[in-house]
Amino acid sequence: MSDKTIRIGVDIGGTFTDFVLHDETRRLTRPGKRLTTPEAPGRAIIEGVQRLLDETGSTIDQVHSIVHGTTMITNTVLERTGAKVGLLTSEGFRDILEMGREIRYDVDDLMLEPPPVIVPRRLRVGIPGRLLADGSQHQPLDEAAVAAAVRFLVETEKVEALAIGFMHSYRNPAHEARARDIALSLYPDLLVTLSAEVAPEIREYERTNTACVNAYVQPRVHAYMNRLQQDLATLGFAGDLYIMLSGGGVTSLEDAKRFPVRLIESGPAAGAMAAAFVARGRQERKVISFDMGGTTAKMCLVDDFTPHLKHDFEAGRLHRFKQGSGLPLKVTVVDMIEIGAGGGSIAAVDGLGLMKVGPRSASSVPGPVCYGRGGTEPTVTDADLLLGYLDPAFFLGGEMALQVEAVRKAVDERLAGPLRLPSVQAARGVQELVNESMAAATRMHMAEKGKDPREYAMIAFGGAGPVHAYGLAKLLKVSRLIVPMGAGVISALGFLVAPPAVDDVRGYVAGLDMVDWNHVNGLFDDMAARAKALLERAGGAGQPVDLRYAADLRYAGQGFEVTTEIPAERLDAGHVGTIREAFFAAYAERFGRGAVGVPLEVVNWRLSAVLPGRDVSLARAATGEPPLRGVREVYFAGFGDVQTQVIDRYALKPGDVIEGAAIFEERESSYAVGPDGRTEVDPQFNLVTTISAKTALAGHARTSLSHV
């Protein structure tokens, strides 16, 4: 048996970097948390890994693998700090990035700013050569023009990476592949992205844009990951480094460097995978995943233990809630809504005398005022502190003392004074505003899917998630809350429980009744072979692979599709009825009804290949100490100030029941429950709160602890 038995998950957030160390032989799981170092993200990783090893009596040579997620790709696109990229496209299609979909994302805005373009026009070159829609060659590729264009882009314009996106290459990649070979024969170290590899689907604009964004972030991702590898090697790490994909799977470092655009939602996906893991352990089939950290809040639906996925994503929007104002990408991502509402979100009074919370964040530098690191603008965390949700002497287990008086002064000067309110009332306003913002976003996200939040339980995690979960659940009329052990670092756990996975797609448009099934089976065979090879590189050699098939279908004449699960077997005309009925069900679930007598059309064919996941738990045996730490006054909306018992979570054991208002404290987070809550510790050490439909009298809440 190998002596490398430790796996470590690392989640770099805007404020904190979270860690989970798991050693299966010692049945040891240890969480950790450090402030993020944005100027050098790898430093927080190295320091956090070293500390976990010291705390567990482990050595770096025992570490089998580290699984990591990153927001670097998103931040690079948002901040426009990527590489200088050149684009080769089909002659006559040089302006495809500006033409886009030829629609206005806001028809009422006369001063509309167009979506940003990653590659300026002077760095785009049209190449003679043309394929037809069926993949056959209409005009041969002009290889001399390719060579001249590449020389111009590299030698004259000094591009750092090259994207190639030719018409209809999703059906036949031959021209793109030949252009890459020519480019690499001239400049072997040039980073080249083919649209036919990164997004082999119809829609030239989205496919070309995806290739451009991949090339845009690739040099930065290469540099970051190479540096991280070197830093870990200096620490003595000789194991494998894996990366979380935006769709919730895990891939090898080499494939992540080749297709970094597939990591654009890498960090947030881990939280959704952790929520799905917790849901499966409790057999909760309908769950809202609520992840609130220091910078953002993320909500995702998990049905039947699987997070909702989508196969397109819009990055770097000019306007957060205006579809079409960003860069459309053809990548598989966990379908979630993300808003600028975190513990570090800044509260301020605007020019109209109204209080606003977020999306600006204090991040980790300087951080909220209470951190004492130079922050001067009050944040959500500062408001939570004033309202009694946080213990200033037990934040991060007492490692970071919070500055209450500095917070009170900042709230008085920045909020309470301009609003002519007492400071505590201003803090209440901050908390209620951020809760309402998250509730509104969640309602909108669920309404778009035809879902009712009252039918769902909520799993809350992240550093700030358990603090705000009760207030959010009340607004959504969710009656059951679940907070797992180690909720403050549960996203890092997601890296360890997420299975290695590959999502692939091939574009082949055909009427459902006219599909060439031999061709489709060939596409699936090709995708399956590629997926298995990738999973082997991700450490899956010899493990069973679960293959899942899907197709993007639409009514003939529609512009967009609905992804529909189809049988994962050799397909033929006998499957048409099954596929049609599956589409009708998926379409009706989303839109409430379907059309009658309209033929169906298939656009894309999809395959997901998944290896078995790992079973990891953050639960630990009860300490044996008395659970009650004390009592303090906490404000709960609808109840006022309530004398609330403070419970040591580590002292609780399965079967313990807490009636009424309580604050459950652990090292990485605090969980607040109002007077109308009943909380039980389940066999997995999750805190499960049932919120009563009855409303207690404000300020008169009974709290008790019992064991059943």
Q: What does this protein structure show overall?
A:
The chain is α+β, with helices and mostly antiparallel strands and 708 residues long. The strands form 9 sheets. Strands 13, 14, 15, 20, 23, 24, 31, 34, 35 and 36 form a 10-stranded mixed β-sheet that branches. Strands 3-2-1-4-11-12 form a 6-stranded mixed β-sheet, sandwiched between helices. Strands 6-5-9-10 form a 4-stranded parallel β-sheet, with helices on both faces. 31% of the residues lie in helices and 27% in strands. The protein has 16 helices and 36 strands. The model is unreliable at 695-703 (pLDDT under 50). It starts with 5 loop residues before the first strand and ends with a strand. The longest helix has 32 residues, at 204-235. It is globular.
Describe the SSE topology.
Layout: E1 6-12, E2 16-23, E3 28-35, H1 41-56, E4 63-69, H2 72-79, E5 85-90, H3 96-99, E6 124-127, E7 130-131, E8 137-139, H4 143-156, E9 161-165, H5 174-186, E10 191-194, H6 195-198, H7 204-235, E11 240-244, E12 250-252, H8 253-258, H9 266-282, E13 286-292, E14 297-303, E15 306-307, E16 309-310, E17 313-315, E18 327-329, E19 333-334, E20 336-339, E21 345-349, E22 355-361, H10 380-386, H11 404-419, H12 423-448, E23 457-461, H13 465-476, E24 480-483, H14 490-497, E25 501-511, H15 517-540, E26 546-555, E27 562-566, H16 576-591, E28 600-610, E29 628-636, E30 640-648, E31 656-659, E32 662-665, E33 670-673, E34 677-681, E35 687-691, E36 704-707
